[in-house]
Amino acid sequence: MLFQNGNLKVRNLKEKDNYLLAKWLSNPSVLEFYEGRDNPFDLDKVNKVFYTPKDDKVKCIVEFDGNEIGYIQFYQLNDETKKEYGYFNEKVYGTDQFIGEVEYWNKGIGTLLVTTMVKYLIEHEKADRVVMDPQTRNTRAIKCYEKSGFKKVKILPNRELHEGKYQDCWLIEYHK
After folding, report:
1. How do 92-99 and 129-132 pair as beta strands?
2. What is the pTM of this model?
């Protein structure tokens, strides 16, 4: 287990979790905000995207009350991305997350997850800042992030191809 906060636990992704990711990433309600409804995942795609790449992302499963409910990953930003965002001599981490079990939406669990992840990154990874880039249209997620202490920094125009259209994203940050 990476960390726990009350009923919330975050643990490293295991190979057997591939079926959970395939279930969540084939649900149109989840895909509307993460990856796109035109981009569903089956087990093969999950294995290629989440298990084959040799990247620096720490990939995790989110549990609440003993149930596996979502996914979160974190990573240190590379120099090129830091420069693009306007950060220089700082240790900056990014996170991406979703709650895949929709019955857990709108219960404050996302805010608990993000707040606890930020605390973990600052205390254990010695992050100076934590950043995310949600699509501007994802108002529910942005509200969650703002409740977790994130501030909007700037618009990233045409940042992400989603359902056939480039979407603007917000660069948001938490600064300790």
Report:
1. parallel
2. 0.96
DSSP conformational letter for 99:
E
Task: Give the separation between CA 48 and CA 134, rounded to whole angstroms.
Answer: 24
pLDDT for 55 equals 87
**Strands 67-76 and 58-64: what pairing?**
antiparallel
Q: Is 175 helix (H, G, I), strand (E, B) or coil?
A: strand
**pLDDT tens digits, one per residue of 78-108:** 999 999 999 999 999 999 999 999 999 999 9
> How many residues would you count in the chain?
176
Residue 53 gets the label, from left (phi > 0), alpha (psi -120 to 50) or beta, of beta
* Backbone CA torsion sign across 159, 163, 165, 167: negative
Q: Write out the two tokens for 26.
A: 């084939």
DSSP string, 127-174: -SEEEE--BTT-HHHHHHHHHTT-EEEEEEEEEEEETTEEEEEEEEEE
